[in-house]
Task: structure prediction
Amino acid sequence: MTKMGMDRLEELVKRHGKWECGVRVNHYRLPDFTDARMINPDLSHLGLDSAIFKETYMAYANFQSAFLQRADFTNASLVGANFAKADLTQANFTGANLFGAVFRNARLDGALFDGAGLSHTCMDEKIHELHRNFCKECPPNKHGGRIVYRTECSMHIGSNEYRPGKTYVAPNLSFDVATDCNPGIYAASLGWMRHNYWECSRLAKCYVRDGDWIITAKGAIRCKRLRVLEIV
Result:
């Protein structure tokens, strides 16, 4: 990491929590912190979209509630890091050491964990495996979304019927990956639906955009918004 980059990270941590003109200093565009070395830095609540943290050593870093969409943590050492409630949409943790890291209530849709060390994290390795299996069974299309399926009628809450051509939006969406029963519209791959809802003769074929869903502890997904294409 260049001295300028390291100085910028130290300045960011130092200024964190200060206010300028009544606005909290919390957004930095495309910062590159490659190879930074810090212990226990407080980066909570900061806007660090697309930030680069490759090869960084940031043990016990606090990223709670930070905005880290598309951030690159390739091969970073993040032992004990706190990502609780952080937005990690499409973040890249390939090869990262995440021993003991906390991801409780973090938004992880589209995040990559290939080759990452997930031992003793609050995000069970099973969740990562379920996420990978779903993405394999429902690959993204050229429009940045996926084809998924759900029951034609709500099975557990209410009596909503899903009709072709209509878009449905959940009033709330929980991004807690550790549990299954949380707010959101549920869907899954066709194979998952046929295995778990074999008694349903009619399914709604739907389209969901990446960024509008999160994996559940059972391997289905929970959606903020989806569009029904047809009943099959």
Observations:
- The first strand starts at residue 19 and ends at 20.
- Residues 1-5, 17-28 have pLDDT under 50 and may be disordered.
